[in-house]
Design goal:
Elements lengths: L32 H7 L2 E2 L15 E2 L5 E3 L3 E4 L4 E3 L4 E3 L3 E4 L4 E3 L74 E4 L7 E4 L3 E3 L2 E4 L2 E4 L2 E3 L4 E4 L3 E2 L3 E2 L95 E11 L5 E9 L2 E14 L3 E11 L8 E9 L3 E3 L2 E13 L6 E11 L3 E12 L2
Parallel strand pairs: 3-6, 4-7, 5-8, 9-12, 10-13, 11-14, 12-15, 13-16, 14-17
Antiparallel strand pairs: 1-2, 18-26, 19-25, 20-24, 20-26, 21-22, 21-23, 21-25
């Protein structure tokens, strides 16, 4: 059937039927225009040469399909275009070399079990011209199968890029209920270069290195192996809460437990705003806080610090023979020391006493020989100088200046008091000194000095 006018001349032996040039209107009277459109291919544009009858300018169908069963639909430089139909290759390949495959329609769909580049070294681009429309991949509401991206690369290192790393205008939303990053059975490194915010549950199964990891108010990050990150934050907002290990129940949480650690572990040591640091549950009797360090410093020696104990202090240790710790005790009993009238003499001492508060006890056993001694002065003092009553620590002193005579034999005096050692140097010596004034007789003192640190 043709749209051209019938010829006006005849050939010998050939009769022309004008009916071939008339569109059929009734069934059985010939082929209609619509039937021809559905049954035959139409060239989109005339060929450049009438003598070369090919389809180099394209193939057009009005409502049917271009289908190759077991073969290929191939263009070298043209386009495969459908306005409302399908491009179908049941067992073959739809391949365009240096061309476009364009689909039009309300919801155009390209059905294929595989879309691939022309050769292994060619680039395959999806959505290159798209600007405002959505690019949907595998978002059927009933999907149950896995969506794999670059899962076949096993021997050659390659990079899978998502997003533009040179712009700040993109947001990558991972909205799945559970997000696994890394392979739990293979050691993998997870590098987070810029701050990342998680609003769901993020599970990191590999080594995670990051400049900063943020979680939103409802976000959770679960790490199955090592995380190398100089900063964790509760989110991009300073008011967000950061929760660590609130899912963990019976497992151990190790923080800074490297056996070679030499650096400090700081907790809220830069804030100048009043706030609380809470460790433990104050409504439970089932928790025990163990501070196992060899030395535990509470408060700052150069600043005024208040330490409040709201519960009884229950020391569970044996007596400590070291006054560097509260509860520690030490004593000195050097033996008998001769005493001369009117001269101060040290009868016991304790060295290297640090700053602190101490309970002091002393006992002095005097022994008189030869004859009775008439005393006019008997003085005992805790001093900071050997053999001298020139500086008394906090008035820990006993003075008896009445005339009294003691017979030959022994007698004892005792005393106690609170001593606050705040005298430089930090490690000082406490001397128990005595001075007795008498006229005749021989006197010796056998003393014991004991101090207990109480603060």
């Amino acid at each position: 059937m043709s749209a051209e006018n019938p010829p006006t001349y005849n050939f010998n032996g050939i009769d022309f039927n004008p009916g071939f040039y008339t569109e059929a209107t009734t069934v059985g009277s010939g082929i209609s225009q619509g039937e021809a459109d559905n049954r035959y291919l139409i060239k989109i544009q005339p060929d450049t040469s009438d003598s070369i009858q090919t389809f180099t300018q394209g193939i057009q169908t009005y409502s049917g399909a271009i289908e190759a069963v077991g073969g290929n639909i191939l263009t070298n430089s043209g386009n495969i275009t459908t306005n409302s139909g399908d491009v179908i290759s049941t067992l073959g390949t739809v391949r365009g070399r240096f061309c476009n495959i364009t689909l039009y329609g309300t919801i155009p769909t390209l059905y294929s079990d595989a879309i691939d580049a022309r050769v292994s070294s060619s680039s395959l681009t999806l959505g290159q011209n798209q600007i405002d429309g959505l690019l949907n991949i595998g978002n059927n509401a009933n999907r149950t199968a896995t969506i794999n991206i670059s899962t076949g690369a096993t021997t050659t290192a390659n990079i899978v890029n998502i997003g533009n790393d040179t712009t700040n205008n993109q947001t990558l939303n991972l909205n799945s209920k559970t997000i696994n990053v890394g392979n739990a059975t293979v050691v993998s490194a997870i590098n987070i270069i810029s701050p990342s915010t998680f609003t769901g549950t993020a599970i990191f199964n590999g080594l995670c290195t990051a400049s900063r990891i943020n979680t939103s108010t409802a976000g959770t990050a679960v790490f199955d192996t090592n995380v190398v990150c100089p900063k964790f934050n509760g989110g991009v907002l300073s008011t967000n809460t950061l929760t660590i290990a609130d899912v963990q129940v019976s497992g151990i949480t190790d923080i800074c437990c490297n056996s070679l650690r030499s650096g400090n572990i700081n907790i809220s040591n830069t804030s100048n705003v009043a706030h609380n640091i809470i460790i433990g549950n104050d409504t439970s009797n089932n928790q025990t806080l163990n501070l196992n360090s060899k030395t535990i410093n509470v408060g700052n020696a150069t600043a005024t610090t208040t330490i409040t104990l709201n519960k009884p202090l229950n020391p569970a240790y044996l007596v400590i023979s070291n006054i560097s710790a509260i509860g520690g005790t030490t004593s000195n009993s050097p033996g008998a020391t001769a005493c001369s009238s009117g001269t101060a003499v040290t009868v016991a001492s304790v060295a290297n006493v640090p700053f602190g508060v101490y309970q002091v006890f002393y006992q002095i056993k005097y022994t008189i020989t030869v004859a009775s001694i008439p005393f006019t002065e008997q003085r005992v003092g805790l001093c900071n100088t050997i053999n001298a009553i020139n500086s008394v620590y906090n008035q820990i002193e006993s003075l008896e200046n009445q005339a009294i005579t003691r017979p030959v034999g022994s007698y004892s005096i005792t005393g106690s008091g609170i001593w606050v050692n705040n005298v430089t140097p930090a490690l000082s010596t406490a001397y128990l000194n005595v001075r007795n004034t008498f006229t005749v007789g021989t006197l010796s003192a056998d003393a014991t000095l004991r101090i207990v640190r109480i603060g």
